[in-house]
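Weekly sync, protein design subgroup
Attendees: M.S., D.O., the rotation student, P.L. (late)

Item 1: inverse folding check
M.S. brought a backbone from last month's batch and wanted to see whether the design step gives back something sensible before we order anything. D.O. pointed out we never logged the input encoding, so this time it goes straight into the notes. Structure tokens as presented (401 positions):
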């Protein structure tokens, strides 16, 4: 028999473990093409992220520019109760600059990183494994002199020798890191492989540190990889609104969160995200950067809750759950929109007319449907104002007759 659920339902539902959402829209997201924001825009976007309930808000990379430094400083002052993170390479100057930018934060996190894969060591850093290990430990130890909350990221972790990754992870935790992030920096990993790596380091570190994941979407697997990692023991997911970020982007926050919320039978985890703020956050970001999510983007795309095919609209109007697995209101989308296009049926047209305040007779509906299909044939879909105009026209004609 077809199995619809991952676990057999039990009366109290599955016990949910807490997963922390680390938002990097204002750092990894903001550093990508077309996404740069002014300090004022970053502050407004930070407000949206706070409303959304992210656990950790990465506000920037202070050594990278004065603008980033000021944004981290301003966000730390404006939202003193929030856990604000600042990025730093594993060097003294970077860590000091991050600490300075965070000096007004009540809950500062210094996030220091260093590449650990042989390919990065050989071509980019020109350092030995021993040197990298020492630099990482020194940066974490220095960061700990400013704050108890230190995260270490092993850049390009998924292409790093796992034995060496274990060595680095143990060493940075001994030096005081409370979170160890294992990024799939180049989006190369696949779910089974990533889960195996995360499980291995999570078992090794036990309660001594939280294992975090940070996935890029080069193969379109960032969300799948993040979720597989959570199942394997990761308890922090780094992600961005609309999935913005370097190259193909980062794991989309709204997708990671809604998978857990929609399928707790498969992913028995919970986050602190107020999901009805997802769409408003996505819309705000779209206003601040130069592009929005593609129309068919899950959760926040314009078509994510639109049903056009006549059969779908008919089923949806009879019972929403026939074609809708998420209530649009639960993610802050004003209302489920039915796009009326050439595939729409009379039933959907009648229902839309009623939504727009028109009660049509059978004859009026016949005439409207005739006119509508003619127009819809030449267009991508009719907006509410166009449908209203069409109805008024039909009603005026009917009255004349
Ligand atoms: O993708 C990456 O490896 C990063 C690190 C700096 C965390 O963004
Ligand atoms: Zn990244």
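Designed sequence read out in the meeting:
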């Amino acid at each position: 028999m077809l199995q619809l659920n991952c676990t057999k339902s039990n009366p109290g539902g599955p016990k949910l473990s807490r997963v922390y959402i680390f938002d990097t829209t204002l750092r990894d997201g903001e550093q990508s093409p077309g996404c740069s924001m002014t300090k004022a825009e970053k502050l407004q976007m930070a407000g949206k992220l706070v409303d959304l309930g992210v656990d950790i808000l990465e506000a920037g990379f202070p050594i990278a520019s004065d603008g980033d430094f000021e944004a981290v400083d301003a966000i730390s002052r404006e939202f003193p109760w929030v856990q604000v993170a600042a990025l730093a390479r594993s060097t003294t100057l970077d860590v000091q600059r991050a600490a300075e930018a965070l000096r007004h934060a009540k809950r500062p996190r210094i996030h220091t990183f260093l590449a650990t894969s042989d390919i990065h060591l050989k071509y980019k850093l020109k350092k030995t494994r021993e040197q990298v290990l020492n630099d990482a430990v020194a940066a974490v130890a220095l960061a700990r002199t400013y704050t108890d909350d230190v995260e270490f990221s092993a850049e390009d972790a998924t292409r790093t020798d796992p034995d060496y990754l274990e060595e680095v992870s143990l060493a940075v935790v001994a030096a005081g890191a409370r979170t160890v992030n294992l990024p799939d920096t180049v989006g190369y990993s696949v779910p089974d492989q990533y889960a195996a790596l995360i499980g291995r380091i999570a078992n090794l570190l036990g309660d001594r540190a939280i294992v975090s994941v940070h996935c890029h979407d080069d193969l379109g697997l960032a969300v799948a990889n993040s979720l597989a990692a959570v199942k394997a023991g990761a308890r922090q997911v780094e992600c961005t609104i609309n999935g913005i970020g370097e190259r193909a982007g980062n794991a989309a926050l709204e997708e990671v969160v809604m998978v857990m919320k929609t399928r707790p039978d498969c992913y028995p985890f919970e986050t602190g995200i107020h999901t009805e703020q997802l769409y408003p956050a996505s819309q705000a970001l779209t206003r601040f950067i130069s592009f929005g999510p593609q129309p068919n983007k899950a959760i926040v795309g314009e078509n994510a809750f639109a049903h056009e095919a006549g059969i779908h609209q008919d089923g949806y109007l009879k019972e929403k759950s026939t074609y809708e697995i998420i209530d649009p209101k639960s993610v802050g989308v004003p209302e489920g929109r039915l796009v009326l296009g050439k595939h729409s049926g009379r039933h959907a047209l009648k229902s839309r007319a009623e939504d727009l305040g028109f009660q049509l007779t059978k004859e009026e509906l016949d005439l409207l449907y005739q006119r509508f299909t003619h127009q819809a044939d030449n267009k991508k879909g009719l907006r509410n104002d166009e449908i209203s105009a069409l109805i008024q026209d039909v009603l005026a004609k009917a009255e004349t007759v």
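Discussion: The mean pLDDT is 93. The chain has two domains: 17-288, 306-400.
Action: P.L. to compare against the previous round before Friday.
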